[in-house]
Amino acid sequence: MGAILGYPIYNLVRLSLQRYGLFELIQHHGAYVGLHNFGSVLHDPIFWHTLVRTIVFTVVNVGLTMVIGILVALLLVRVSAWVRILITAGLVLVWSMPPVVAVQVWNWMTNSQNGVVNYVLTELHVGNFFQHNWYVTPFSQLSMVTTLIVWGALPFVAITVYAALSQVPHELVEAAEIDGARSWRIFRDVTMPVIMPVLLILTSLSIIWDFGVFTQPYLLIGQGHVVPGNYLMGIYLFEEGYVKTDFGRGAAISILMLLIVAVLSVVYVRRMIRMSEAT
Amino acid sequence: MRVGNARRAMWNTVGIVFFVVTVFPVFWMISTAFKPDDQINSVTPTWFPTHPTLQHMRDALARPYFWTDVKNSLIVVLVTVAIAMVLAFFSAIALSKYRFTGAKVFIVLVIGVQMLPAAGLIIPLYVVLARYHEVNALTGVILVYLTVALPFSLWTLRGFMIGIPKDLEEAAMVDGSTRLGAFVKILLPLVAPGLVATSVFVFITTWNEYIFARILLNDQAKQTITVWLSYFLGTSRNTDWGALMAASTLTAIPVVIFFLLVQRKIAFGLTSGAVRG
């Protein structure tokens, strides 16, 4: 079993140091080229543009998922039991939707001809969205991807945070209330420290998922419509490594992605620990 | 918590609005799947299928390769779950009951692969499978899913097993059972809920998986159902939304059923494993 786990990683590193294209794939061995693949990726302006776009995308998606998830968990504490059961059942239903199915539902709801989103927004007088096309600019395309991802990730975060909230001692909250503390202060000084470990794990997991996300942007933007102008790292890797059959370069991109994800989560985890120590 | 009635009513209202908004996409999928075409294609939506039709279901089922690809998905999912459970079960026992050199390295490796986004695995696995001519074969996809499913299963099962006291197993051995007999009699019933929960979770993630299947399976007759569904939209401007939503509903049904069965245990397993680890 150790071999099953270790072999892909070993192979990934080895590939990244080789010239490995379609020819080498048929020959079954590549020629070592040192760090050439890494140099080639790091000199590619598309890599840097995609990286910045993906980091912004990840921060927005993880931020929205976590904030809304925590708010929903807090809401679950405050509503009546039957509303809580209703919301939880709804969240579980959403949680169980396969991503590809969700993409197709989004396609249907947001299509410019007769999508229900355009109808509802127009009826609510948000503006005139008659035949509005949601997939014109990279920004609007990725915004739609964001709604899809946050919707799909919300149940896991909300339900897990709600479970963590039940660990917060009632006496502490009541003591703070008697002391006249405002609800924001109670949340920050009593609730947050207790649920912090769970929040850290959820945030790290969300960063890992959102930074490498592929299925939702690839299928929602459309297989024929992904272009360097709207690439995310997962799609960049797919296009450069698999579509262009440059597996050595693809492996180098993979390794760079793994390093960046590691850095992104470590910085965050450390900062949160320091914050929780400071307060 | 003592909250005034007015306040509770306000939170309830917020809660119901939130419920309606989050569930709407799922409702809209099912509603569309049963609506006649003229209601679907109208600019003014019909909210409920007032004249329900099964035509879209029939259309979806009659599409080429639907059943073939459902069968492929089932094969891949069942074989992956079976192998993952057996291997993960024994590894979890080894990890929690016996000390062996390299156990720490092994655990780090398990966590490491779990942290790996799919992006890190695609290229090396594709190249390895191409080397052994397992591209465009279900066995190749199963091997790939195992590399993802095994660490997860092992990690979750370990979380379930840590809670079992060693004395129980020893008591069975004193009664004259062999080591194997001991864990079959004592351990298996105790771990059964964990095994069920873990295997359902593997079932769901495997059934839902898209990118590996998309890359590894090029032949329409060998694709899984998610890849089949992803090609449904096609390039034509006139998408058959009714049939697409019917197919989407059909694809989601097995996952929804299994998910509802074990959701509580999964949430528990994930958090307990994470916190304990």
Can you put this structure into words, describing what you see?
The complex is a heterodimer of chains A (279) and B (277). Chain A is an all-alpha fold and 279 residues long. Chain A has one domain (44-278): MetI-like fold (Orthogonal Bundle), CATH 1.10.3720. Chain A has helices spanning 2-16, 22-27, 36-42, 45-78, 81-95, 99-109, 116-123, 138-165, 170-178, 183-211, 215-221, 233-243, 247-278; strands spanning 18-19, 31-32. A two-stranded antiparallel ribbon of chain A has the order 1-2. In chain A, helix 1 packs across helix 13 (247-278), helix 4 runs parallel beside helix 8 and helix 6 packs parallel to helix 11. Chain A is globular. Chain A starts with a helix and ends with a helix. The model of chain A has no long low-confidence stretch (mean pLDDT 89). By secondary structure, chain B is mainly α. Chain B has a single domain (68-276), classed as MetI-like (MetI-like fold), CATH 1.10.3720.10. Chain B has helices spanning 5-33, 37-41, 55-62, 66-97, 103-115, 118-131, 138-162, 166-174, 179-208, 211-216, 225-230, 241-276. At the A-B interface, helix 1, helix 4, helix 5, helix 6 and helix 8 of A face helix 1, helix 5, helix 6, helix 7 and helix 9 of B.
